Amino acid sequence: MRELPGETAPAIEEPFLDFGDVPPAGSASASTSPGNGKIVLKRVEDWRARFDEWRNEASRRLDGIDIAPDLAEDIGSRRWFRGLGTMLGLSAVALALWPDFAPLEARPAMAIDQTARDEFRSHMILPLALGADSGRQMGAGPRVIPLASAPERPQVELVATLSRGDSFDRMLQRAGVGPSDAARVQELVAGEMPLDQIEPGTTIDITLGRRPAPGASRPLDDLSFRARFDLELEVLNDNGNLSLRRNVIRVDDTPLRIRGTVGQSLYRSARAAGAPTSAVQEFIKALDGQIDLERSVRATDEFDIIVAYRRAATGERQAGKVLYAGIDRDGKPKTQLMRWGQDGNFFEASGVGEQRGGMVSPVPGRLTSGYGMRRHPILGYRRMHAGVDFSARYGTPIVAVTDGRVSAAGRMGGCGIAVRLGHGNGLSTRYCHMSRLAVNSGQQVRRGQVIGYVGSTGLSTGAHLHYEMYRNGRSVDPRTVNFVTRAQLEGRELMSFRAALSELKMIEPGAALEDLELQPSEIAAPKREIEKIDNKRKIG
Question: What is the pTM of this model?
C-alpha cells in the first residue's frame, strides 16, 4: 500500500497480552518484569505464522507431484511406468520389512491340580440346573448351627416328553418316578389304550410327593397327559393307591371350508386365505390329476377347499386331509372333486374318478436309450432294444407307472432282478436291473408305489433302469402309451356320493374357525380369590 504525501501510515497493532507497566531499567524487578511476556508472545506468534506459511507451501508442491498415478490410465506411457516402479518399490520395501515366519515360542501349559481347578470353577458362570457353584461362598461362622439334613421340597412338579423310540416305562423312571409306580401307571394306561398309540412328542405332567425315607424314590402324586385329541388321562394317588381317570374332551368335527380368488398364484392365494400348507399341496395335486392347471384355471376363478377339521373344547385344533377340491368360474362350479371310498380317491361330481396323464417316469432320471434296434454294449452285436433306459443312481426308488398286480418278481435272466406288472386289457410292464425288490408276486400295487430300487444286475454296464411295456405279449414303445385310470360309481353308491357332496357344500366358509362355546361342566372352577371375583355368579 503506497503512502500519500502528508499522510501517515496507520500503525499495525499486533495482538499481545498486556501484563502492566514495564518497571524502570536497573530496578530490582526489571529482569522479572511481566513486560517480557509481550516479547515472548510476539515471537511465538511469528513462529506460528511462518510454520503455517511453510506448511501451505509444502502442500501446494506435493499436490503438483503425481506420486501414485492410476495404473488403469495411459497404459505404456512414461507416467504409467513411473507409477509401476513406485508400486514395485513399495512392494519390495514391504517384503523387506516383513517379519520372520519362525514359530513363536510359548510357555508350556500350566499344570492344574484339583484345588486350582476348583478355584477356577468357582469364578465361572454356569447354569444352576447343571449343578453350578458359581461365586465365592463365605465360611460358616461360630454362630451357624449345622443342619442334620437339608430340607427337601414337599412336592416336585416336572414335565417329561415321550421321545421317538422311547418306551413309556423308561420315560417315567427317567423323570424320577419309582419302578413300582411306573409299572402301575403303565398297567393303568395300557388298560385304556395301546401304549404304542401314544404319539412321540407327547408331554406328561408329573407331580412327585415327599420321600418316605432318605434315599427312597418320591411317590407319584399326580400324572396327566393328552392321550388322544379327544381324551385326557390322569393318574391320581389316593392314600398310596393309584387310579386312572378319563377326561373326555368334547370335539367338533365340522370341516373347514376356505374360498378365495386364484389370482397370480393358486398356492399363494390359498395360503393367504388361511389354508394349511399340507392341505394346499394336496388340493393342487388332486386338481392336477384331473385338469391342466396352467390352461384350465384362470386368475379370476375361485378356489374352494374343504378340509377335515377338528376343534376341541379346550382350544386345540387339528387339520386333516382335503375332502373337497373345486374351481368355480362366474359363480358356477367348473371342477368338483370329492374324496370317497376306503382308498380315499377323488371322484368328480358325476361319480367318475379319472386320472389322466402321459407316460409316468418310473424313476426321476433322464432317458438315455430309446426303443428300437441298437448295438448291445456287452454282447457287441445289433439287436432289438425292447424298452427304454433311464439314468438313475444306485438305490433310487422305482415306482409303478399305473395301477396293477405283480405277475412276477425275481431274477429274469439278462434282465437281472426285475418286476413284471399286469395292468389288464393285455397291457403289462417290466422293470429290470434292480438292486432289490420292494413287492412280492401277486401283490396289488397303486400308481406311484415303490416296487424296487435301481441297480446293475443282469447284463448291465452300470446302475440304470431298463423299462419295458407289452401289449398282448408284443413289446411296444412306452413313450407312445398314455395311461387313463377310470372308476365309475353306480347305483346306491352314486346316490350316497351325491348326497354327501351336497351336504359338504352346504358348509359355510370359515365357520369352523370359531371357538366352541364352553358348557358349564367345562368351565374350570377358580382356584385363587382374584379368579373368584372375576368369575362371580350371576343371580336372577
Answer: 0.49
